[in-house]
Amino acid sequence: MEVESPNHQEKSRGWFKSLSEKLWSKMDDFVRRLIKLGKDDPKKIVHAIKVGLTITFVSIFYYFDPLFDGFGVSAMWAVLTVVVVFEYSVGATLGKGLNRMLATMVAGALGIGAHRIATLSGHTGEPILISVFNLIVAATVTFVRFLPKMKARYDYGLMMFILTFCLVSVSGYRDDEVIHMAIKRLTTVIIGSCASVIMCICIWPAWIGVDLHNQIATNLEKLGNFLEGYADEYFKVSVDDQDGRSKDKSFLEGYKSILTSKNSEETMANLARWEPRHGRFRYRHPWKQYLKVGTLARECAYKIEALHSYLRSEIQTPPEVRNRIVEPCTMISKESSKALKELATTIRKMTRSSIPDIHVANSKAAAENLKSILKSGLSKDVDLLLVVPAAATASLLLEIVTCTEKIAEAVHELESRARFKRAKPRVIPDHQDDSSHHQLDQQGITNGSHDHHDDYVITIDGNGYSSNQVVPASRNHV
Amino acid sequence: MEVESPNHQEKSRGWFKSLSEKLWSKMDDFVRRLIKLGKDDPKKIVHAIKVGLTITFVSIFYYFDPLFDGFGVSAMWAVLTVVVVFEYSVGATLGKGLNRMLATMVAGALGIGAHRIATLSGHTGEPILISVFNLIVAATVTFVRFLPKMKARYDYGLMMFILTFCLVSVSGYRDDEVIHMAIKRLTTVIIGSCASVIMCICIWPAWIGVDLHNQIATNLEKLGNFLEGYADEYFKVSVDDQDGRSKDKSFLEGYKSILTSKNSEETMANLARWEPRHGRFRYRHPWKQYLKVGTLARECAYKIEALHSYLRSEIQTPPEVRNRIVEPCTMISKESSKALKELATTIRKMTRSSIPDIHVANSKAAAENLKSILKSGLSKDVDLLLVVPAAATASLLLEIVTCTEKIAEAVHELESRARFKRAKPRVIPDHQDDSSHHQLDQQGITNGSHDHHDDYVITIDGNGYSSNQVVPASRNHV
């Protein structure tokens, strides 16, 4: 027994030690993650401080006697409103604030009405009638909340409507000054909402419209990044055989986030509609057009997902077959990449440009070239099974050309609907006789704002093409 | 002037008429949509009524004097809690309710502590110290809310934490009975939350776990539906040329919803974890495994998306080439379809089955057959451009076979982790000498629960295969 006792003690000590070590490592992990979050996005720290400051500011109503005398305990509603309404983005905060204020106002008025009607039926009938009103209003509005359109924009307002209606009508049973109470509630809700909105907009605001704008541009860039490196990757792996696999291939995975971005884009567009004019985003900015571009980008990402799977395909097409299509395939992927990246720059800088069109035209020409190569047959002696991945790749690249063209069209529609600026025109004397060339030069090649654009354009004559030949861009721009 | 006046009146009358007509049509549209919503899902109507009843029930605390005397105006918090906590699904309601109760308890206690410390610094120092506390707590917790893990499960609780902490600590300045207030708040919150949870669970509950379970099964069915009709569609369009386009093709579009289902599945899995044991769903049901199956289904849907695009391809492969691959392609798509549908049935009925494995084996055999046909070459005289879509289709079908196999594996893991029942064994005398065949028959072919399974299995000998030949399934099950 004497031996067991210290053993037991040791055991429990060990247990305690391992528990505390576990807790410690969990805490450590938690803090590390918080620090990483703060470093990655300092704006989130600022948001947290903004929320704290607003709550502190609003609670002053409670501390100062002259203010407190006006509101009484209702002053608490202002603090509550700030906690609930203050969101990270301006759109979400404004949306919630407006929803809450409007709902409180309408529901408060209706609640007073319901209370008045109920009092007519005497002290016993009043609670019964109010209960019936509450049941009907709560059930109806809860059901309306299921409508997708309502859910997207007014969900919070409808919830607040039920809340305020029940609050005001029920309170009336104990508190005869129902109108006074409803007004106090409305005032404090307005104070809380306005404090949140003002704080949210005035100090380093996070516009969700800007986030959506940038995300769409980033998505196009990610597609471009994949296509830029894809052809090299695909054709090199077969030629050099497993060589260079150690280098960074993250650009090949970037597009994956686009595959599932639909919901977040839709939420962002819904919230962005609440935001007032800011920066170069006007009132009634065409947010829906961003969703259109986003959808097309996603369709392109699906094709890229299929393309990506052939990178890891077990069946490897023999080099002699690949070598026949390497040129047009590389061309398509490079030119589509450039087109997508230029479109991303167009969106990011909000400046119209026709450089993307040039790259789209180039990629289309390369596609025609690829088709003609395929038409002439690749190599008749090779077994078709080995050709399948190459054929599928070629076919997908052809589809990506179509996709890129559609994206370009959608971005051009966005340009005109959002009234993007034109790049500064520069007069080129040589071309003054030809107005269409002239215009193209104004917007396109001479546009100084593009970074990624290599300054050569490929001419296409018939089926073949010669690279690195510098010609005026307008020749290819049909 | 006399002429203009009636004209003006008429104009304003016309304007008023058109406005009222517009309003009327909008209202009409709104009501129609509500009715459609109710018809499509009567459970939503029931939910709305449940919310109304719970609110009415909780407001009784306000009407009855003995109950009101205990809580006073705080009784209002119970109504408020019901409005905010009561969600459609049990998981969401329980999650919010538990979050709210726990947060109110912890934050209430901390708030009282903060108030006590603050009172030590005198009447002037108190508000300053409380403000500092509030600032620190609100900012820290708001920042913690950004952590993805916290956001997924405890977002509402963290918000309630800030709210209650501020409420209790600030109220302490005017109300000396802080402890009493905190307890009243906690009690009313508990009453509201419990009323919501009980009502939500007891009357026609909507388990989000069941929804996730069914959605995953439906997704597999949708993939199966596409593949079932795909081959007929693809090969018929070329042979009959545009014939039969008028018939219902909705099965070809069903898979599209899977492409973007990631977010909703993740949310559902997060909420399902809150739900207690119900029906055949135990405590610690492997919800994450559903997400795994869902992800694989999505990968398969990406391939199907690519496959779908070839249905509308401009380039049509000549019939003589198509005819060479029509058999194995049809076989792959039909057998994969059956496998996926059987997997869906397995999930839906929560009964283990090895029928899917048989179909997977069949589709793999067909894939080998397709490969050997491709190896022998399709038709050397045809231009390769026309072969590309067929080759790409074949290649995608080969990948779908791999995908289906992966899905089958994931579903089998789900079966064992969620402890699905085995189908009732039935002894077949002919096979009693071979235990592995015997077992297969027990689970597979003789399982009476499958509806979609045609009772023949295809034998594979070498590269070729003969269809419609009835053999014991176990022969193909490697």
UniProtKB/TrEMBL annotation, chains A, B:
Q: Which UniProt keywords apply?
A: Ion channel, Ion transport, Membrane, Transmembrane, Transmembrane helix, Transport
Q: Region Disordered: list its residue ranges.
A: 422-459
Pfam hit, one: ALMT
Per UniProt, what is the membrane topology? Multi-pass membrane protein
User: Which residues fall in a compositionally biased region of kind Basic and acidic residues?
Assistant: 427-440
Ranges annotated as spanning the membrane: 45-64, 70-90, 128-147, 154-174, 186-207
Taxonomically, the superkingdom here is Eukaryota
Question: Where is it localised?
Answer: Membrane
Q: Does the keyword Transferase apply?
A: no
What InterPro entries does its record include? ALMT
Q: Which family, according to UniProt? A: Belongs to the aromatic acid exporter (TC 2.A.85) family.
According to UniProt, the name of this protein is Aluminum-activated malate transporter 2
Species annotation: Ziziphus jujuba (Chinese jujube)
